[in-house]
């Protein structure tokens, strides 16, 4: 198995000498409990100066092996724990085992053959911290969140591709990582590391619907794979209804609603390229009679501005979906996020026909399901449209939750 030109050959092998770390008692307890993050300010002693990608062994107060992880001196999240418990060797066999376990976890999702786009590795939650792998049919998209991974790619990628054969592998990098070109050994965001070049979107299926994903320029790795189960629920709720999909991106919820038999589907987003993709996704599914029959309207603009205008003009829908971007990624943003959720709840119910259904998702990791639910319920009640909640969902099978910070997605279903 060989990778493109010399892309990986410029990257040195990881240091054979491991870093030895001693940490605070609190950090020790947290790591023993299985948490995958060790922050710089929890390190009390370190054997030598480390560089990104070094394997760091954490020892406990009695100098026994506690955990091993990937060291990144450029991040306050200094070590991402690969393993805790009995000592292990991190080698190709170990990577293979992690990848196989992740694949196994997804098996139920793939049984009916209707889904070829899914998350194969969900970072920390699959024991491979700082690394995500999404699959879109024959294209794998590898997204890295720490420079520590670069030194391990030469060992990791052949194991990944052996366990999960694909025609192509695209490299994406987090924004933080893209800002560190000196650490990237010539690799850059959007490079194809394996297989043929990519000039546009790739087509995959989700529950039998065809979608395009743009692994090079799209948000996340090209598609919001985490909403698959919520979309399927929306499909079941959409028959005969007028549906408004706010923050529609490339029309995931819209297309499911159409297949479910919605008469009218309105996709609203501030990004016109996203809505153009939504229109193309509808075009890809015209062989499905209900999709062909549904009227699909596109509205480009800011939801906070358009929704009040639509309500004032008398527009009403039977099903309103709200799936905004993350409003709170940091602690300090929580209050603002909650007030944005309250505002959206008010705007959503104002557009809802009495007895209609509201589907409201939040992907703000810092806002828990209880605070989100309470905020939305209160705002709707104050607007004179109390909610009758009938479902709350969290993560799908391919986005497992391995630690508290891994839980970010929640979705409420209610009539009002
Ligand atoms: N529901 C989508 C994912 C939504 S991602 C799916 O199932 O795939 C969030 C979307 O909100 C993005 O497409 C982004 O362009 C859009 N967005 C962000 N701020 C917005 C705003 N103020 N008004 C309208 N759309 C917005």
Task: Explain what this protein looks like in three dimensions.
The chain is α/β, with parallel strands linked by helices and 416 residues long. A hairpin with a 2-residue loop joins β12 (202-206) and β13. α2 (92-110) runs parallel beside α3 (153-163), α5 packs parallel to α6 (252-259) and α10 (334-350) packs across α11. Helices cover 28% and strands 28% of the residues. The chain starts with 18 loop residues before the first strand and ends with a strand. The protein contains 11 helices and 20 strands. It has a 7-stranded mixed sheet with strand order 16-15-14-17-18-20-19, sandwiched between helices. Strands 2-6-5-4-1-3 form a 6-stranded mixed sheet. The mean pLDDT is 96. S-adenosyl-L-homocysteine binds at residues 224, 227, 247-249, 252-253, 269-271, 274, 302-304, 323, 325.
């Amino acid at each position: 198995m060989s990778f493109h030109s010399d892309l990986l050959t410029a990257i040195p092998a990881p240091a054979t000498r491991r870093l030895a770390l001693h940490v605070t008692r609190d950090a020790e307890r947290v790591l023993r409990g299985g948490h995958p993050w060790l922050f710089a300010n929890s390190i009390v002693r370190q054997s030598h100066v480390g560089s990104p990608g070094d394997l760091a062994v954490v020892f406990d107060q009695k100098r026994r092996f506690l955990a091993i992880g990937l060291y990144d001196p450029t991040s306050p999240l200094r070590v991402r724990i690969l393993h805790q418990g009995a000592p292990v060797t991190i080698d190709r066999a170990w990577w293979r085992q992690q990848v196989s376990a992740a694949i196994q976890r997804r098996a139920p999702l793939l049984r009916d053959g209707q889904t070829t786009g899914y998350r194969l590795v969900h970072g920390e939650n699959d024991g491979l911290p700082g690394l995500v792998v999404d699959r879109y049919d024959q294209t794998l998209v590898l997204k890295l969140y720490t420079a520590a991974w670069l030194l391990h790619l030469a060992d990791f990628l052949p194991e990944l591709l052996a366990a999960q054969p694909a025609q192509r592998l695209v490299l994406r990098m987090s924004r933080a990582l893209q800002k560190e070109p000196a650490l990237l050994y010539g690799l850059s965001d959007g490079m194809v590391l394996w297989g043929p070049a990519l000039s546009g979107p790739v087509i995959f299926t989700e529950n039998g619907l065809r979608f395009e994903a743009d692994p090079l320029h799209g948000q996340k790795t090209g598609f919001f794979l985490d909403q698959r189960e919520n979309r399927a629920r929306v499909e079941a709720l959409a028959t005969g209804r007028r549906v408004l999909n706010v923050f529609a991106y490339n029309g995931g919820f819209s297309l499911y609603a159409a297949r479910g038999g919605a008469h009218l589907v309105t996709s609203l987003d501030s990004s016109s390229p996203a809505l153009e993709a939504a229109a193309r996704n509808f075009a890809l599914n015209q062989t499905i009679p209900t999709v062909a029959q549904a009227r699909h309207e596109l509205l480009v603009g800011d939801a906070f501005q358009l929704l009040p205008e639509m309500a004032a003009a008398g527009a009403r829908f039977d099903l309103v979906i709200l799936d905004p971007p993350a409003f709170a990624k940091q602690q300090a943003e929580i209050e603002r996020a909650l007030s944005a959720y309250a505002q959206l709840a008010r705007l959503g119910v104002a557009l809802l026909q009495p007895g209609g259904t509201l589907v409201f998702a939040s992907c703000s990791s810092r806002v828990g399901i209880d605070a989100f639910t309470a905020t939305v319920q209160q705002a709707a009640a104050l607007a004179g449209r109390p909610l009758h909640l009938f479902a709350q969902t969290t993560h799908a099978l391919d986005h497992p939750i391995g630690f508290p910070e891994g839980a970010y997605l929640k979705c409420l279903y209610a009539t009002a």
